[in-house]
Design a protein that fits this description.
By secondary structure, the protein is α/β, with parallel strands linked by helices. The strands form 7 sheets. The protein has a 12-stranded mixed sheet. A 9-stranded parallel sheet has the order 14-17-20-23-26-29-32-35-38, with no helix packed on it. It has a 7-stranded mixed sheet with strand order 5-4-1-6-10-7-11, sandwiched between helices. Strand 4, helix 2 (57-62) and strand 5 (68-72) form a beta-alpha-beta unit.
């Protein structure tokens, strides 16, 4: 039977963010702000999570994870009205309801659990989360009674000098007796502004003789909501520091946490080493003993054990065990690089699969390619995969050798063990084991036969009437007289 539920308030416009993006969707450590709230509630054991939407409701609802349900507040008439709307999606058998804000992403699951325990054990109508801050300006002050409970929440505009001196503020997160909340939220009176405020429930509870308890946040900075981009940046720093510390305690070396940016969704294996000025974003996973950085950026990628990515970018791709990438390489989306490969300086790949033991050397490009095992891609070699209308594939077989500055005009197949000479422009398929040279590239045997026509009464032309060509070796250079 369900015993707990949470109502997350996410209907407001968030005008102080000065953004077209709804405030709760602003990214924080790689995830929308509200995702952190819902995740913490789930880890606290909250079975039912209801998100009250309003401003840009469709956009917010599209980002909700499975297990969270939405309730629209139209029009937006204040926090008490938002809770009333949210309760329509909460099952009747629920006994405890947490109410929190979609813009308070740093509240840990343990604090939600503490609120639930305080409300249940104290038989209180409500428990509110408080924070003691150095500068309480702009927040509602908590006025305590003789027993330490909450006597009132006084907004700053209504506070006298003595009340303004109180440094304990309302953080905007609560735990309610569900039955009492259902019976009382509709009794909140309309304010002069035409809205209904949740804080008015304190007076209603006190008037009914019910207890209102206060739980102080051990770390006030984690309890606060985010109202503008300055606070968003501060929250980003706090969350990233906690993420880095979690990985380090799990056996990951992070050389300089202050210059390392790791999203909350990243996984890192034991004994991996993260060098300075590295960004690990999205659903990236790093294997054991891998070395990432310095100056590496990885997004939504999987890096296997003992691989190294140095001063390079890897996007939406996978990298095999003990493979080395960089410096200054770019692995674009859709790549699968096998184990024991070497991707050198200024190499670029896009939507390409590379087999084990293959080497791609500097200033080279592979796009829409299927490359076998133990292939050599020479410096400056490229696949010309775009014909102006479509992207065309290139297939390179196991053990092939692609010479420096080779241009492979797709669609094209290079057979296993085939070779291209330096500077070759390959426009036709190359059979297994064959060597092609020249521009356009042709089998070296054909080049040699045609070169025999030079000086034999053909005016420098071969028997087919084409200009005579020098005998080229596999490397593409002219044959020596003693070759």
């Amino acid at each position: 039977m369900l015993s707990t539920a949470a109502v997350v308030l996410a209907a407001g416009q968030g005008t102080r963010m000065r953004s077209r993006l709804p405030k709760v969707l602003h990214p924080l450590a790689g995830r929308p702000m509200i995702a952190h709230v819902l995740d913490a509630l789930e880890r606290a054991g909250i079975e039912q999570r209801v998100v009250v939407t309003g401003h840009e409701a469709a956009a917010v609802e599209a980002e909700l994870p499975s297990g969270a349900v939405a309730a629209r507040q139209e029009p937006q008439l204040g926090t008490a009205d938002a809770v009333r709307v949210g309760l329509t999606r909460v099952p009747e058998e629920v006994r405890h309801v947490i109410v929190t804000m979609g813009d308070a992403p740093l509240i840990p699951a343990e604090l939600f659990g503490a609120l639930l325990h305080e409300q249940a054990e104290g038989n209180a109508a409500m428990v509110l989360l408080a924070a003691r801050v150095a500068d309480p300006a702009g927040y509602g002050r908590i006025v305590r009674d003789a027993d330490g409970g909450c006597r009132a929440i006084v907004e700053e505009a209504d506070a006298d000098a003595e009340t303004r001196a109180i440094d304990e503020i309302n953080a905007g997160t609560y735990c309610f007796d569900a039955a009492w909340l259902r019976a009382s939220v509709g009794a909140v009176e309309e304010s002069p502004k035409g809205e209904f405020y949740l804080t008015d429930l304190v007076a209603l509870a006190r008037g009914a003789g019910r207890r209102v308890r206060v739980l102080d946040a051990p770390r006030p900075e984690l309890a606060m909501g985010i109202n503008d981009r300055v606070q968003l940046a501060a929250a980003e720093g706090l969350l990233r520091r906690e993420v880095a510390e979690r990985h380090m305690r799990a056996g990951v070396t992070i050389v300089d946490p202050q210059t390392t940016y790791i999203d909350a969704t990243v996984e890192i294996g034991q004994d991996a080493r993260i060098e300075p000025w590295t960004i690990l974003a999205g659903r990236t996973a790093i294997g054991e003993e891998a070395v990432i950085g310095p100056h590496a950026t990885l997004r939504d990628s999987r890096i296997a054990a003992r691989a190294r990515v140095w001063a390079s970018i890897v996007e939406e791709s996978s990298v095999g065990e003990a493979t080395q990438i960089g410096p200054y390489s770019h692995v674009r989306p859709g790549c699968e690089i096998g184990p024991d490969c070497r991707i050198g300086n200024y190499a670029e790949l896009k939507k390409t699969r590379i087999g084990a033991g293959t080497q791609q050397h500097h200033v080279s490009y592979l796009g829409d390619a299927e490359v076998g095992e133990r292939v050599n891609i020479g410096a400056g070699a490229i696949t010309a995969n775009f014909d102006g209308e479509r992207k065309n594939p290139t297939t390179i077989g196991d053990g092939a050798f692609i010479g420096v500055d080779t241009m492979l005009r797709a669609p094209l197949t290079i057979g296993p063990g085939a070779r291209t000479g330096a500077g070759a422009v390959v426009t036709r398929d190359v059979a297994a084991g064959k060597t092609v040279v020249g521009m356009p590239a042709r089998p070296i045997e054909l080049r040699r036969r045609r070169s025999e026509g030079i000086g034999s009464g053909t005016n420098g032309r071969n028997p087919e009437g084409e200009p005579g060509e020098r005998n080229l070796q596999p490397g593409g250079s002219a044959a020596r007289p003693d070759a």
